[in-house]
Each structure stands twice: as C-alpha cells, then as structure tokens.
Amino acid sequence: MLQFARERGEPIFSFEFFPPKTEAGIEALFASLKALRPLAPNFVSVTYGAGGSTRGRTLELVTRIKAETEIEAVAHLTCVGASKAELAAQLQGLAAAGVHNVLALRGDPPRGQREFVAAEGGFSYASDLVALAREVGGAGFCIGGACYPEGHVECKDLGRDLRNLITKVRAGCDFLITQLFFDNTRYFDFVGRARAAGIEAPIVPGIMPITNVDQIERFTAMCGAHIPAKLAAALRARRDDPEASLQLGVAWATLQCADLLRRGAPGVHFYTLNRSPATRAILAALRASEPWREG
After folding, report:
1. Which residues, at least 6 apart from 20, have a Cβ–Cβ distance to it below 8 Å?
2. What are 106-129's pLDDT values in tens digits?
3. Rg (Cα) of the chain, in Å, rounded?
4. What fold does the segment set 12-288 form as a domain?
5. Disulfide engineering: 127 pairs with which of 53, 62, 171, 274, CB 3.0-4.6 Å?
6. Where are the domains of the chain?
7. Whether 16 is catalytic
8. Active-site hit among 16, 150, 200, 294
C-alpha cells in the first residue's frame, strides 16, 4: 500500500495516465513506465474514460502495472454508470489482484449530459464510494480522494466545498490529490483552511505541465482552474509556436513544483495526459536540485 510519511525527508512523486484505446497505445504506455522507473516514482494511477467507458481496461492495466513494473499502482474508481453492488465487486476484484490502492471519485457526467445522475442503485457522491471502499477493503485499502483548491466547478462556495471534503475524509480517505492549479497561493491557502477545519490527511498538489495552449484553455474552462495573468499572456504570445509553448509549460511547472516542495508540500502528482517526457524532465530536475531540503 501507499505510504505518505516521508522517508529520509523524501517527498512523494506520482504520475497519472489514462487507458490507451489500442494495443499500440498500451505498449507505448508500458514503454513510458519503463522510462520512468529510474526516477523512482512512488506510484502511478490509471483513470477511467469518460462515463466510465474504460472501466475494465483500467482494472486490467493497474493489475498488470503492479505485476510487471514494480511500480505501485492506484486504480481510479468512479460512481458513473455503476450500482453499489457493481462497485463492490470491482473493489473485491482489485483486492484479489493485489491492488490495494484506490482513488475514489464521483466522476464527470457522461458526454452530452450536463448534470451528474446516479445510476440505479448507485451513488451520487464520492464520499459514498469512499465509505464503500473502506467497508470492502477495511484497513487493507489505501483510499484517496480529490480536492479542489479553487472550489469544485459545480460548487464555487468554498465553505460548502470544504464541508463536503470533511465528509469525504471522515468516510475513510487516507490522502487527497488536488485538481490542477497554476498559482501556488491557491494551494497553500486551501491547505491552511483544510487544516483549520481538522483535515489531517496529506494533500498532494496535482500539477499539469502545459504542453498545448488550446488544450490547457479547454481544460481550465471545464474544471474552473485559474491561469495567472502573466502566464496567460506568455501563453498567448506563443500560441502559434508549439515548441515554445512546451518549453514555457515545462519551465513554469518546474518552478511551481520546486516552490511547492520547498514550502512543505508532501509531494507532487503529475497529470501526464500520457505524455511523460515533459513530466520526466521535471522530475529529473527536481531530483537533481532537491528543493525540499531548502525549506
């Protein structure tokens, strides 16, 4: 299972991938994992597709990652399109395969559906899924949940959003991973509010290095993350130069991660979009400079 207590002062580093649709994509994913291995990631997580469409492949991949790569694996599990009984069976299947780490999420509405609607006999909230995972796995599961430094896109009332998070943690979360953000002040303000509210679970910042300007603008519009004005201006100036945009994105994320670790963040979770070269470069720079020792 995952261990979030720092060993010898070392932070946690992790990477998120989504299930490829083709066999060639799967082989490319495992090649990326092989390239990551020398950088000693603490775990990798595998997402669901939209509407839970890759549920079976997600479970298949985390099982294979655990068995073949010697990297700890975390399975995403969502409430989308599944009853309580189906979710319990998936959790039991993970445990039987030796995967004891779960990131329990409500999930986004399926494509074309504006609001989340629970499946018949299913759950409407991630806290219910967390509670089920704890019921099924007991102390043998390490359960993670999502949190939102700038508020959930469906709940911009930060006080209410924090109360929802308290419910989720009390249901059994061992750790939290944030939605992507680009302004570290938002993260540290959020951690301060969470600690004041009694949340003690590790809060791992989620970082997405910008590799494409149009893509990151779509993502932030969907999730409600704020792009600082200076970064937004620099991106606009490089919109027609993909290589320059990539270089800026890697540089910004590297500085952002160094600052987070220097100021006490427990680690970094990288949203890779299955493009690991950028995140590998960032982690290599962080391993070389060890900014967490400067705090």
Report:
1. 26, 28, 29, 274
2. 987 766 677 787 888 889 999 999
3. 18
4. TIM Barrel (3.20.20)
5. 171
6. 12-288
7. yes
8. 16
